[in-house]
From TrEMBL:
Residues 268-350 form the 2Fe-2S ferredoxin-type domain. GO terms for molecular function: 2 iron, 2 sulfur cluster binding; metal ion binding; oxidoreductase activity. Its cofactor is FAD. It comes from Kocuria turfanensis. This is Oxidoreductase. The keyword Manganese does not apply. Pfam families: Fer2, NAD_binding_1. The keyword Oxidoreductase applies. InterPro entries: 2Fe-2S_ferredoxin-like_sf, 2Fe-2S_ferredoxin-type, Beta-grasp_dom_sf, FAD-bd_FR_type, FNR_nucleotide-bd, MRET, OxRdtase_FAD/NAD-bd, Riboflavin_synthase-like_b-brl. PANTHER family: NADH OXIDOREDUCTASE HCR. Residues 33-131 form the FAD-binding FR-type domain. Keywords: 2Fe-2S, FAD, Flavoprotein, Iron, Iron-sulfur, Metal-binding, Oxidoreductase.
Length: 350
């Protein structure tokens, strides 16, 4: 009969160099002490360019509030890329993201995700959430900007008899419009929810937020409602300017950082010291994008200067903040690579 020591030597011969965690992962793909993961449970097409990816998160995930977002990590050609996505399901439901194919990561997610895949995750965050007490609401959305608002609608409308919510959603056409069938059904079923669809293809123009005419027609009491807006930058800039003029209350969620006019500057040579890599970056390329384009595994998060996941020590040179145009930097300072471009030669501890 083989001795215990022999059995253990045999076992270790089979298992080396795998760690116990590697074997645990074969049984449970979400098991990782180091990195929160999510197992994809379904992928449902929404439009020709977008899908809803539902996932079961592992330990370390917190239930999301309606309107919050999470960072999602995806490996493409061996490099892990992080992007932020709003959670489109209602509070208390299994999380899901609804992604529109646009660039590198979103296209990989939309075209390549299958049930059973594992996503890398960070817990939900963000303060674009419903007000604490029920009040008349106006949601202004365009394109994929509907996703965080859809989470709010799914949370509020079917559950609260006192809900009073008007959604004005702009998209190119009915076929491009996310969650269209579900929204029509909700509007049919719940008197506290009104849907105004603005199809730019049919109307021949965008919703005009430079004046108040379109809003007066879509939602005559819009001034009396707490307003939320999410969509492309120009749409949000116009909404913010209008609400500022009207001294109203507007909460905005942006999917991309605000870029200060004329913040271009000169660009320069960027040296990633630890990675022994040098690249030439123009004034429109962030330090984060420059590193990723060179194939480096850069730390990143929201990609719009909110979460600070990308901060990296500056060794020399100066950087320009794309949001303000301000040039700054001393050796040892931490720079947010997602909203900084090179202002001349720059060296980073990355
Ligand atoms: C808080 C937050 C929530 C988000 N929620 C969602 C969501 O629910 N669904 C979703 O599809 N995306 C969402 N995004 C955008 C997402 O994080 C990515 O920016 C987007 O998927 C593009 O990444 P990419 O790698 O495909 O494109 P990249 O290859 O990084 O960029 C491609 C180009 O597209 C531009 N671009 C990026 N996003 C947009 C946009 N929204 N509109 C116009 N141009 C853009 C970039 O500036 C770049 O020029 C959210 C972003 C944030 C910060």
């Amino acid at each position: 009969m083989p001795s215990i020591r022999l059995l253990s030597r045999l076992a270790s011969a089979f298992t080396t160099p795998r760690s116990p965690e590697d074997f645990l992962r074969l049984v449970d793909p979400l098991a990782s002490a180091r990195q929160l993961r999510g197992l994809v449970t379904s992928v449902v097409p929404e439009t020709a360019d977008s899908v809803t990816i539902r996932f079961r998160p592992g330990k370390g995930w917190n239930a999301h509030e309606a309107g919050q977002w999470a960072r999602i990590g995806v490996e493409i050609d061996g490099v892990r890329h992080w992007r932020s996505y709003s959670l489109s399901t209602g509070a208390g439901q299994d999380p899901a993201i609804t992604v529109t194919a646009m660039g590198k990561v979103s296209t990989a997610l939309v075209r390549g995700t299958r049930r059973g895949d594992v996503l890398f995750l960070a817990p939900p965050e963000g303060d674009f959430v419903l007000p604490e007490r029920p009040r008349p609401l106006l949601m202004l959305t365009a394109g994929s900007g509907l996703t965080p608002v859809m989470s709010m609608i799914r949370t509020l409308v079917p559950r609260r008899a006192d809900a009073d919510l008007v959604l004005v959603h702009s998209s190119r056409s009915p076929e491009d419009s996310l969650f269209r069938e579900e929204l029509l059904e909700l509007a049919d079923q719940f008197p506290g929810f009104r849907l105004v669809q603005w199809f730019t293809g049919e109307r021949g123009r965008r919703l005009d937020l430079a004046g108040t005419g379109d809003l007066d027609a879509a939602c005559p009491d819009w001034r009396d409602r707490a307003a939320y807006a999410c969509g492309p930058a120009e749409f949000l800039d116009a909404a913010e300017a209008l609400w500022q003029r009207e001294e109203g209350e507007l909460r905005v969620e942006r999917f991309a950082a605000v870029v200060a006019p004329g913040s271009g500057g000169e660009g320069g040579r960027v040296t990633f010291e630890k990675s022994d890599t040098e690249v030439e970056a123009d004034s429109a390329t962030t330090l984060l994008a420059a590193g990723e384009d060179a194939g480096l595994m850069m730390r990143s998060g929201c990609r719009m200067g909110i979460c600070h996941a990308c901060v990296t020590p500056l060794l020399s040179g100066q950087v320009r903040d794309t949001r303000t145009g301000e040039v700054h930097g001393e050796p040892g300072h931490l720079v947010q690579t997602c909203v900084s471009t090179a202002a001349g030669p720059v060296s980073l501890d990355a």
